[in-house]
Amino acid sequence: MHVLSKQSLCLLFFLVPSLVLSATAFYANHGAIYRGRHNAINPLCMETQTSSKTNSGGSTNVAEPPSPPTNKIESLTSLEAFCSYIDNAPQDTLVAVKFYGKSCPLCKRVAIKYKKMARYYSTAPIQFAEIEKTAHPQLFDTLEITTFPYLQLYRNGQCIASHGTESDSMFERIVHNTIQNFLLMQPEHWKSFLTSFAEPIGKATQNYETMRQIRDEEANSRSPA
Questions:
Q1: How far is the C-alpha of 5 from the C-alpha of 66, rounded, in Å?
Q2: Less Cβ crowding at N or C end of the chain, within 10 Å?
Q3: What is the pLDDT of residues 25-67, one digit of tens each?
Q4: With 50 as the cut, is the pLDDT of residue 102 above it?
């Protein structure tokens, strides 16, 4: 299984018994998709709630509702910005990067879902970014991204999942399930996941390493002799 094959529709994640998850594996025209479903209450629900308690004086204090989510989507406008955003993410933080094109109608619909997702996960250890093709066409070619919209998930400099989509609802469902599964994984499960999918993750990460090299070469070419 190749995570970044051209025109792929691929969801990659590792499920372990202790995560209270179930999975159904099936094959689609564009590659292997693994879907997961968890039956636990979602700990990341961002619904606004209020609570009350009685103080020593007998009066009731009503807690203030949570502040509105502030997680924003970072717009990456260059190769340097793309690499720096991934490399400078905190340890073990997930980094979601959406690749899109200005003239893509589906990308415009997916943009609404992506913003909603960023708000939903505002308190989770995940960052959201996006980059448009004209910002650096070679980036898209090297990462073998030929369809829009396309999403990649990084963790500690490694590309751990990627997929395209054919509808905005499918994009929201698949990305949400992928993020949920990754956020529930414990350190020991990450080790098993990276070992089990070493080959596709290695190939995807090598493409990213190539972009780092191109970034450095571009920086050197701009430096005074």
A1: 42
A2: C
A3: 222 222 332 233 222 223 333 333 333 344 555 554 544 444 4
A4: yes
Q: What's phi and psi for 159, nearest 5 deg?
A: -85, 110
Give 15-25 pLDDT, tens digit per residue. Answer: 332 332 333 22
Pairwise pLDDT comparison (159 vs 218), residue with the higher score: 159
Distance CA 189, CA 187 (A): 5
Residue 35 and residue 64: Cα distance in Å, rounded?
A: 38
Q: In the predicted model, is pLDDT for residue 215 greater than 80? A: yes
C-alpha torsion sign, points 46, 50, 51, 55: positive
End-to-end CA distance of the chain: 45
Q: What's the CA gap between 215 and 210, in Å, rounded?
A: 9
The span from the CA of 110 to the CA of 65, in Å, is: 29
Contact at 8 Å (CB) between 3 and 145? no
Residue 52 β-bridge partners? 62
Other Cβ atoms closer than 10 A to 65: 10
pTM for this prediction: 0.70
CATH number of 17-38+71-219: 3.40.30.10
The whole-angstrom separation of Cα 213 and Cα 192 is 29
Q: Are 89 and 95 in contact (CB under 8 A)?
A: yes
